[in-house]
Sequence to fold (129 residues):
Amino acid sequence: QVQLVESGGGLVQAGGSLRLSCAASERTFSRYTMGWFRQAPGKEREFVAAISSSGDSTKYADSVKGRFTISRDNAKNTGYLQMNSLKPEDTAVYYCAAVQGSGFPFTIFHTGPAGYDYWGQGTQVTVSS
Fold:
């Protein structure tokens, strides 16, 4: 299985930016669809964004569209989530996830936790008012 390690979380003021990274253990990361999810205390894990294996296609939750950008650099076996214009409601633990397959076309499974087989440990993002 591919191992995923997130980094880049932290404390930021509302309106600020953070970039999360997801380092994968396998060069075959290029064969995996990648997603980002987040989970706030007392809430279910929710979909944030997904990107196809090639990076050609992306999908975003409505709550982050226009503010967050998902990307990947397969040569570096790394995925990213650039978060701009952060809001307090973005506060959560953010998880990187992956599943084998191109991710094209996207299915409903790519927008839910059950659609992914491999997960990172999570990184905390806290946005203050």
